[in-house]
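Input record (one chain):
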Amino acid sequence: MFDGDDAVLVVGAHPDDEVLGAGGAIAKHAAAGDDAHALIVTEGTTHQYDDRDLIEQKREHARTCADRLGAERVHFGDLPDMRLDDVAHVEVNAVIEGVCEEVSPDAVYTHARREVNRDHVAVHDSTLVATRPGSGVSTVLAYETPSSTNWTPGGDGFAPSLFVDITGHVETKIEAFQAYESETRAYPHPRSAEALESIARSRGTDCGAAAAEAFEVLRMYR
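The corresponding structure, as predicted from the sequence alone:
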């Protein structure tokens, strides 16, 4: 990882999940010369607003975010927002499998499984199908999503086993997240600039770095 020879894919259920969970890693991959991609599985607004103009606006925000991180491209799955638990599992699988076939990633990042948001859980499960043994993906990692992973009743259930030093990429992550104008919140909400920096600093103390992102290793073949 981070050697400039890999393709990586970050899978998120909604616009902004990709940067909240792995924005620092995306920026670090891009800076190292890796071919970084993001996949947004749902439309991001359908259920809440039913507004096609807002859907396109969020796509533009996603593209701006990707540009700020240095990612190569954002892919869109167009599945219904906040309703993935009503979508056939094979349909969600197919969206992720299709982008994996196109990108041929060495590493894939996805949601952790224990999440408040049910779309996140569906994306996690389908990512494991799309990256099953024989898929060509060598590493599958799960990220935490502020305001979902940490809001799970009874504890977040997130047990990171890999920490990525993002000391030089925290400001890039925050600037990229701020491309999502409709998703940013005031501190102390987890989706605020101050909270994202605080989370990065806290994860850094877990591994002896000034700032870090934390991941669960789901699969790793070497």
